Amino acid sequence: MPGKAIIFDLDGVLTDTARYHYLAWKSIADELNIPFDKELNEQLKGVSRQKSLDIILQNAGLHLSNEQKTKLLEQKNRLYLQFIAKLGPNDLLPGIEQLLTTLKKQNIPMAVGSASKNARRVLDSLQITLFFDAIVDGHAVSRPKPHPEVFLMAARMLNIPPGHCIVVEDARAGILAAKRAGMKAIAVGPPEHFPEADATVPGTRWLTYDFLKTFL
Ligand code: BG6
Ligand code: MG
C-alpha cells in the first residue's frame, strides 16, 4: 500500500467503549426519567459529548439551563471514566491487535480520528498509543463529525493526501465525515446503517490487512 494511510475511529472500532458511552448516558437519562434506548444511541455515535446531551434532551422535549447541562456533562464523564478505569490490552476488539501489528510491519502510516476528549487515556490504557503516527481527538477539533475536520487534520499530520486515506468507522456521522474529506470509508456494523460507506464489515475480525488492501 505505498503512500496510503489508515485512519481509525476509536470508540467502537479499536475497543468497545461505545458500550460504556451508552451505559453512562443511559444512567443520566434514567435519573432524569426520560427515554433513551439503543436506537437513539446510534445517533450519538461519533458525536461530541455536548451534542449527545442535546440530542437526548431534544428527543425528550426537555429544556435545561446551561448550568444544569454542564453538571450533567460532568456527571456523564465521571460515570464513563469509572467504566473505563479497568480498560486494558484485553479490551481491544477482535482482530485489532493483529491488524495494527501487520500494518506497522508494512510501514503503513496510521492515525486515530476520534471525537472523544478521553481518546489518549483510552489508547494508553489499551497500550496501543505507539502504533499511531497521529492522534486527533476531541480537544483538537472544533467542528465535530460529520464535519471532515478530524480526518483532514489527521491526513495533514500524516502528510498523506486525503484521497489516499482509508477511514474505519462505526458511526454514520464518521462515515459521512470521511466521505466529505474525500477518503475511502469502511464501516463496522449492519450495512443498512451506512448507506454512504464504500464497504461494510459485520465486525472488527473482518478488518484484515488483505481486506483493507483491496481498497487502495
Ligand atoms: C466518540 C463517541 O468517539 O466520542 C461518542 O462515539 C462520544 O459516543 C464522543 O460522545 C465524545 O467522547 P468523550 O469521551 O469526549 O465524552
Ligand atoms: Mg466510534
Give a structural overview.
It is a single chain. The protein has 216 residues and is of the alpha/beta class. The chain has two domains: 5-15 and 88-212, 3-Layer(aba) Sandwich (Rossmann fold); 18-84, Orthogonal Bundle (DNA polymerase, domain 1). It has helices spanning 18-32, 38-42, 49-60, 66-83, 96-105, 119-126, 149-158, 172-180, 209-213; strands at residues 5-8, 110-113, 134-136, 165-169, 184-188, 199-201. It has a six-stranded parallel beta sheet, with helices on one face. Helix 1 (18-32) packs across helix 4. The radius of gyration is 17 Å and the shape is globular. The structure holds 6-O-phosphono-beta-D-glucopyranose and magnesium ion.
Any key phrases for this structure?
DNA polymerase, domain 1, 2 domains, 216 residues, 11% strand, binds 6-O-phosphono-beta-D-glucopyranose, alpha/beta, 9 helices, binds magnesium ion
Order of helices and strands: EHHHHHEHEHEHEEH
**Shape, per Cα inertia axes:** globular
Radius of gyration: 17 Å
Number of domains: 2
How many beta-strand elements?
A: 6
- Poorly predicted regions: none
Major sheet, described briefly? 6 strands, parallel
Q: Which ligands are bound?
A: 6-O-phosphono-beta-D-glucopyranose, magnesium ion
CATH fold descriptor of the largest domain: Rossmann fold
CATH architect. name of the largest domain: 3-Layer(aba) Sandwich
Individual helix count: 9
